[in-house]
Amino acid sequence: MAMRKVAVVGAGMTKFVRRAQETGKELAWHASRMALESCEMTLDDIEAVCLGTAPDSFDGVHMKAEYLSDGAGAWGKPFMRSYVGGGTGVFTPIQGWYHVASGLFDAVLVVCEEKMSSYYPHGQAAFMTIFDHTTERPLKPNLLWIFAMEMNRYMHTYGISKKDIAQVAVKNKRNAADHPCALLGDPEITVEDVLNSEVLAWPVNRLDVSPVSDGAVALVLAAEHVAKRITDKPVWIQGVGWNLDTAYWTNRELAYPRYVEYAARMAYEMAGIKEPRKEIHIVEPYDPFDYKECHHLEGLLLADRGQAPQLLADGVTLRDGAMPVCPSGGLLGVGNPIAAAGLMKVAELYWQLRGEAGARQVPGQPKRGLAQAWGDLMQVGTVIILGTNP
Amino acid sequence: MSERVAIIGVGWAGYRPVSPEVSYKEWMYEAAVKAYADAGVDPRRDVDSFVTVAEDFIEGTSIFDEYVPDQLGAALKPVHTIGGDGLHGLATGYMLIRTGLANLVVVEGHSKASNVLTLPEITAYAQDPVLNRPLGLNTEFVAGLEMNRYLFETGTSLEQCAAVVVKNRRNALRNPLAPYGADLTLDEALEGPPLAWPLYHRHKSKHADGAIVMVLASGERAEVLSHQPIWILGMGWCNCAPSLESRDWNELRYIRKAANMAYQQAGIVQPNLVIDFAEIDDTYAYKELQHLEALGFCRVGEAGYLTEEGATEPEGELPVNVSGGSLGMGNLLDASGLARALEVVLQLRGEAGSRQLEEVEVGLAQSWRGVPTTSGAVAVMSH
Fold this sequence. Notes:
By secondary structure, chain A is an alpha/beta fold. Chain A is built from 13 helices and eleven strands.
């Protein structure tokens, strides 16, 4: 029997801000309401809710999803939270997909919320508790520190310069200037600005990394017969993939994200994609750091290893290039409320493929896009492929 | 789509009140190896997807899903974590197989409760931080409030709740997995100072350590791989109000809705006519009674009398928690739902040893995520 077809039929998004006045529950409510209104649905039409949100330690709430559940519209409904660290934002729509594709539900709300500003003085400290309690925590590593190692390894392996990579931050922050929800859009930013910003953990400078943010995003997913009733422009989920590598990240070759490749291959196979570079028109890879966009384009098999920075230098990944990458502005420009940032990428594909991305719209009526997120200990890849054809 | 999903392998490790010499990874490994051997599968070669259930604060590690793959044989495979109970994990495996994307899915849950030095403080941190936490309510106080309301509304007596404790801990004597087996009298079940009146300390399940792993398969694969597949006939789950002030304290709507969802899939109209036995959440003794009523096995207010009369004893009309439940086996945190499901599988396979029920065809497992949640799940299974 063929797989059940699932479409995205609505999307909503709050502004991404440094310190939201709203509680996390209220942020989830705002995004959910906007998503439902965008497709003229109400909570009565929703049969189940899938929620994504990254560590409980940000909010200091145990079983955070239970707390967020009524804000996300789950009162009196089947509700589950899925979780793959930073990969969660792209995984949650995959969770929504399997809810509908299983045949148990016809309409599902997918909500991702993050409130990182509750953590005082800074959310980075919450990440001190992600490391192995015996072998790593005594060394007091933090996330910037380990990603700086990965960036250094990537640059060293392929002979890439900091300047090549800084171009990514410039592209994405410029793209974000056209996003009404963006926190760090800047149409004037230059490579020198990035290179001259203060070093946080070499080779990562402040403008190489996305900001800590608050925000929420929601999507409405529907089965084929429901989707066609709701809209004449459903955006179909064509492929999904996810992959988790070993926890022993210190034993991993950091120059290449093999787990991202495996997740991508899973999604390509489901979508029937043989030549991804020709068949994917927009890419929203995960870009919490500028080098990650390059790293992920290579893992997604959309660039040769070590060649992703050259694609940008050639203009291929600009918004009006042959393969626009992060036309939304990405995490570097729009902001990085972790799970919400991942779902923002999927919402961007939805708007782009419907031709509703406003000033961000990529030219040429794109037919298919890919969003990807990454997380845990440089360990997990999540991939979703959306398209205008079922 | 593959409509039919079966459990073809189960493995467990534990359960023990403390386990200082074993890490959670070792518990998981032991349970996984047993489940793979039981199902006759190789995780590296055969399994399409892995699901675990866990919560960060309980594990003492943020982004806990990082530490899942290695001991399950799941590195570089599709793995994800559900912040839910074991039955939510089972429902996830059930959905993944029904999509047609996966043929074999592994579901894991574990508890290392003995490692947690501040469990009461952590569970209190599940309350709404703005509206509830400033009141300084601890978890047992909230349970006591709910129990008091239940007794008031239904006329259920303290002795009827105590009868649940006596039954489940006696049942546990026949379960080699259960560390809390005991032969108590009703009076003994009501001994000692209450934790929060009317909740007596023996009415609360004590924690235990352990792990449970299950292998799920599509109908086609199950028939090839297993001579004794246990079919999942229906799964349901539901949430209601998370905040204390906005919930209906008198009604477990979430359990009723979760049950109806599972019954509908299973084509069950009258659960007490079809379901032969049940493994029901008994985090607190009164919850078993409340849950029996919300699951539709009897009318509201009847569960206490049925328990008193012995209807839920192993030889009764509807055996409930023959395993000993959480009161007898220990509260396994988010693995508790899988412990309920495991007993259902063992009973349906005829592998429950000296506590084996006769001629059982359909069993039900139910879970609740504990105070302050209104989150529950239900599974109906048959051989």
